[in-house]
Amino acid sequence: MGAGHAHKLYRHGHSPVHGLPPHTKLAAVFAFVVVVVSTPREAMWAFGLYAVLLGVVARVARVPAGFVLKRLLIEVPFVAFAVLLPFVAEGERVEVLGMSLSVSGLWGAWNVLAKGTLGVAASVLLASTTELRELLLGLQRLKLPPLLVQIASFMIRYGDVITDEMRRMRIARESRGFEASGVRHWGVLAKSAGALFIRSYERGERVHLAMVSRGYAGSMPVIDEVTASRAQWTYAFALPFAALVVCLLGWTL
Predict the structure, then answer these.
(1) Long-range contacts of 54-62 (CB under 8 A, 24+ apart)
(2) What is the mean pLDDT of each run of 10 residues along the chain (253 residues)?
(3) What is the number of other CB atoms lying within 10 angstroms of the CB of residue 63?
(4) Phi, psi dihedrals of residue 20, rounded to the nearest 5°
(5) In the chain, what is the straight-line distance between the N-terminal and C-terminal CA atoms, in Å?
């Protein structure tokens, strides 16, 4: 997979959560999300306990609450959708603060907000304790189709390269006195986008030829063999196991 690639979501640390093999954390987060989604929306107390469990994980991982909350802003579009549900959904209506809201819409909004927020929070904790390179190795270890892993690897590797190319093109335009201020400048921006696409395509061809010349035959060599002990699997699955107990109580109580 090459050299490590830091990202803004990752928070460097040496906690027990950071030290877990990446595929155990990926499997644990996936299992946790499945359990959360399977919980009946009427068991509101259960979602509170899920939040407490994630708080414990964040504490063990030494990830500050502010760090997680700031990155939860990514779900703002889903929050907006949830807020609209009580107004547009049909069925039985109820008066809330002088507004006529749909009962099913209120439950739907709660369902989206609670489960979506918990899923995003779990993903943020995963990303903040696992480097991108390790995530790719974990996906590879979990037997994700190799082609998908390679696509993700190249996307991460060359995302910054293309972004830097865009920055240089912007600086070149501004150094020549160009400043996009209206529709009449869209043509210049469109030409820049086209040039960026051609350069990226040509770069991809050169990279592919270089890989083929070095023996690439459709699969990447495995440099690091990531393994996990039974104790590490048990430690990683403490979160989804605890969540499963809460889920079962939610269905029975």
Answers:
(1) 54/118, 54/121, 54/122, 54/125, 54/239, 57/17, 57/125, 57/239, 58/125, 60/15, 60/16, 60/17, 61/13, 61/15, 61/16, 61/17, 61/18, 61/125, 61/128, 61/129, 62/13, 62/15
(2) 57 91 95 96 95 96 92 86 83 79 88 94 94 87 85 81 87 85 82 89 87 79 76 95 95 88
(3) 20
(4) -70, 145
(5) 48
Residue 2 pLDDT:
44
Please give the pLDDT value at position 3: 43
Counting every residue written for the chain, the total comes to 253
On whether the CB atoms of residues 194 and 105 are closer than 8 A, the answer is no
**Secondary structure element (H or E) that encloses residue 73, with its range:** none
Number of neighbours of residue 228 by Cβ within 10 angstroms: 19
Token pair listed for 156? 């991460």
Task: Dihedral sign for Cα 18, 22, 26, 32, please.
Answer: negative
